[in-house]
UniProtKB/TrEMBL annotation:
GO BP term, pick one: proteolysis
Swiss-Prot/TrEMBL keywords: Aminopeptidase, Hydrolase, Manganese, Protease
Domain of life: Bacteria
Record-level GO cellular component terms: cytoplasm
Family annotation (Pfam families): Peptidase_M17
Family assignment from sequence similarity: Belongs to the peptidase M17 family.
Protein name, UniProt field: Cytosol aminopeptidase
InterPro entries membership: Leucine_aapep/pepB, Peptidase_M17_C
Gene3D superfamilies: Zn peptidases
Coiled-coil annotated residue ranges, if any: none
Taxonomic classification: Bacteria, Pseudomonadati, Pseudomonadota, Gammaproteobacteria, Aeromonadales
PANTHER family, sorted: CYTOSOL AMINOPEPTIDASE (PTHR11963:SF23), LEUCINE AMINOPEPTIDASE-RELATED (PTHR11963)
Length: 496
């Protein structure tokens, strides 16, 4: 049985001086010093050992043992110019202390102004908590856990501890699920897991199984799901309704537990790693968990499009024409473009009760990755005024996004001789844009919509708060978008 558990350490805000640090029972202290106060800091500690290290090791992490306490010291820009740089430095510092497996870690900030300090403290705490998450391993010698039970943070800066721990937990869930091999996270097991989690969290949960989807005419989703002989593909709907004071949110995720490519079979190298093709759904689920844990006042419907893309007697084929739930007919071109097929019907269903904001997450196209690499994910929206704010929010939270156009005339590429829409355009270079245009045919224009093509879902060395290659990209971004207020609240004011 799949099991996910995350217990955050207790976190305490303290007013304690640098001198008092070694007297606490923290075995490890992480001291973050504003770069422009480096001279003052080295003067205050009066440690020839640290001064020597600093001279030999310019800009990097230095350390000492003081009164029995391991102290790791990192120098950071006083006002972080580039957030990416800040997160990268924090990941480097924190990865030094992880192997020490301390139960109590103290984080101390030196020389920062309160506002910049709060940003640094929040990010440092997030990196520390994320690093402690252990992804499943199938090695016979299990990895040693980090029994971190307490973190103290000084000085007592104004940070939102509840939100940051909620984000880390949601991201941990997304990474946990994504790291599972397809042999463990089958469609059946995934659905079972989601049901247990829903019960535990008090979410309503309903599976639209293949019989129900056939009754509703979800031909695009079923074209893909029917390729698997166990009939376990389903659109799972979760509903969280503690409060919707700030608006109603619909989250949609692509959950392809394994993508063989279907009859347009992937070649060996590109099929390896395709257990991660459910990453978008894991991010949607992780975001729902984070919103729940943080107690945010949004009503949320979360829609997971869970299926596997197989070959087999009932699998769909290039040239097939299928009818989606909204009545549009689609001419299949390439069975490896299955993500847009399962999302099409799921987006239609998610739009039915007119959410104030609809966000979908998908590891959708190779084209997006070729365009951006994996440091950024692609974003598309039908609200053009959001383009610049989206870039800003992404940079601030460490999960960077870059917008692509969604103009209507791109549809010329998707004209089919026989059906309403061509599934994709073979050989076209901008498949990420074509895919987004394709999806836009399943989202009503009046629904404010963000589509995230998760090219940053996997990045060597990690991104933002996360040091593992699987980044769980999207959970922190979504909470940052909600906290920003320019997206959802604006919609409410327009009185849609
Ligand atoms: Zn595919």
């Amino acid at each position: 049985m799949l099991e996910f558990s995350y217990t955050p350490p207790s976190i305490h805000l303290l007013e304690q001086s640098l001198d008092a640090l070694p007297q606490s029972d923290a075995a490890v202290a992480l001291i973050l010093v504003a770069e422009d106060r480096k001279g003052f800091f080295l003067g205050e500690v009066q440690s020839p050992e640290l001064q020597l290290q600093e001279q030999l090791n310019q800009g990097s992490v230095i350390h000492r043992v003081e009164g029995g306490q391991w102290q790791w010291i990192g120098f950071l820009p006083a006002i972080p110019e580039s957030e990416a740089q800040l997160y990268k430095k924090l990941r480097t510092v924190v990865s030094q202390i992880g192997p020490l497996r301390a139960e109590h870690v103290a984080i101390h900030l030196y020389g920062f102004e309160p506002e910049a300090g709060a940003r640094v403290a929040e990010a440092a705490l997030g990196v520390l908590l994320s690093q402690r998450v252990v992804l499943s391993s199938y090695k016979s010698a299990p990895k040693e856990r980090w029994p971190l039970s307490r973190v103290s943070l000084s000085p007592a800066l104004a940070i939102d501890i509840r939100r940051i721990t909620a984000e880390v937990e949601g991201n941990a869930l997304a990474r946990y699920l994504s790291a599972l091999p397809s042999s463990e996270l089958t469609a059946r097991e995934y659905r079972r897991f989601v049901h247990r989690l829903a019960q535990q969290e008090g979410w309503e949960c309903h599976d639209y199984d293949q019989v129900q989807l056939a009754e509703r005419g979800a031909g695009a989703f079923l074209a893909v799901a029917r390729g698997a002989d166990d009939d376990q593909g389903a659109i799972v709907r979760l509903r969280h309704r503690v409060s919707d004071k700030q608006g109603r949110l619909a989250l949609v995720g692509k959950g392809i537990c394994h993508d063989s490519g279907g009859y347009n079979l992937k070649v060996a190298g590109s099929m390896y790693g395709m257990h991660l093709d459910m990453g978008g759904s894991a991010v949607a689920l992780g975001t729902l968990l984070a919103i729940t844990r943080a107690g945010l006042p949004y009503g949320v419907d979360c829609w997971l499009a869970i299926a596997e893309n197989h070959i087999g007697p009932r699998a769909y084929r290039p040239g097939d024409i299928v009818t989606a739930i909204n009545g549009k007919t689609i001419e299949v071109v390439d069975t490896d473009a299955e993500g847009r097929m399962v999302l099409a019907d799921t987006l239609t269903m998610a739009s039915e009760n007119a959410p104030d904001l609809l966000i979908d997450y998908a590891t959708l196209t190779g084209a997006c990755k070729r365009a951006l690499g994996s440091r950024y994910s692609g974003v598309f929206t039908n609200r053009e005024a959001w383009l610049v704010p989206l870039i800003e929010v992404g940079r601030r939270c460490g999960e960077r996004i870059w917008p692509f156009p969604l103009d209507e005339d791109y549809d010329e590429t998707l004209e089919s001789e026989w059906a309403d829409l061509l599934q994709c355009a073979p050989g076209a270079s901008c498949d990420h844009i074509d895919a987004a245009r394709f999806l836009s045919h399943f989202v009503p224009a009046q629904t404010p919509w963000l589509h995230l093509d998760l090219s940053g879902f996997r990045h060597k060395g990690g991104q933002g708060l996360v040091t593992s290659e699987i980044t769980g990209f999207g959970v922190r971004l979504t909470l940052a978008l909600l906290a920003d207020g320019r997206f959802l609240s604006k919609v409410r004011k327009q009185g849609r």
